[in-house]
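Project outcomes to date are best conveyed with an example. Our students and postdoctoral researchers have been running inverse folding experiments weekly, and each run begins with a structure described purely in tokens. The record below, which covers 219 residues, was selected by the lab manager from last quarter's runs and is presented without edits.
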């Protein structure tokens, strides 16, 4: 299977985890887009969706799926999203699409996080994919200096502003041996809105696209 076929396969497999008669949290990116296309086929069986980005909200609406504000949601049973890297412990790097803050918020609310990725995202150690960090614009230089002290090389993502009006630093050169510790450290730096490590709230299930079909992994 090609990478794209694997993405489509895991998106289709994720439909089993979308409970009938409930709201579904929906991620951002090309794999999540395939999931939205699948969700559209059962849209009459769900109550609607919570979107993790403006782009996802737009795509959901274009399929006639109602988008509900997270503030009006008491209970979200599931969040389904892709990742840029994921380990066997289901720790992830996310934010390649720049939607990490809203993704982390929806993931925090959801009872279950189902990650859907193709095989290329499955890694032994996080860090080969540059770690995205959303930063308040006036803190950009300060945060970049602090990240350098942690051993990373930050690069400002060019011509990109997040849905929240902030900038992204993509941090190269980190070998993230302890993702929970690194996520916690980064959370302490003033000016960082969100870092792209999803380790404190990792995924509960990974649907991994492989040449042999979709594999289901748990931590
Ligand atoms: C967006 C994300 C995406 O989940 C991540 O970038 C994976 O994207 P794709 O499914 O296109 O490979 O975190 O902010």
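After processing, the design step wrote out the following sequence:
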């Amino acid at each position: 299977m090609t990478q794209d076929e694997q993405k489509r396969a895991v998106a289709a497999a994720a439909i089993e985890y979308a409970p009938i008669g409930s709201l579904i949290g929906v991620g951002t990116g090309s794999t999540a887009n395939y999931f939205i296309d699948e969700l559209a086929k059962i849209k009459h069986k769900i109550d609607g969706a919570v979107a993790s980005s403006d782009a996802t909200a737009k795509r959901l609406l274009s399929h006639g799926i109602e988008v509900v504000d997270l503030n009006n949601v008491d209970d979200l049973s599931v969040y389904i999203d892709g990742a840029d890297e994921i380990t066997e412990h289901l720790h992830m790097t996310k934010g390649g699409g720049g939607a990490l803050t809203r993704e982390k918020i929806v993931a925090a609310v959801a009872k279950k996080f189902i990650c859907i990725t193709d095989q290329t995202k499955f890694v032994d150690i996080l860090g080969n994919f540059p770690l995205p960090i959303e930063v308040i614009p006036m803190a950009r230089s300060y945060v970049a200096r602090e990240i350098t002290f942690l051993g990373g090389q930050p690069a400002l993502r060019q011509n990109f502003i997040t849905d929240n009006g902030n900038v992204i630093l993509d941090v190269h050169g980190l070998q993230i041996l302890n993702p929970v510790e690194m996520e916690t450290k980064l959370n302490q730096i003033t000016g960082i809105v969100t870092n792209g490590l999803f380790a404190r709230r990792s995924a509960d299930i990974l649907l991994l696209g492989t040449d042999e079909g979709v594999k289901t992994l748990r931590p």
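The chain is about 30% helix and 25% strand. The mean pLDDT is 98. The training component of this project remains on track.
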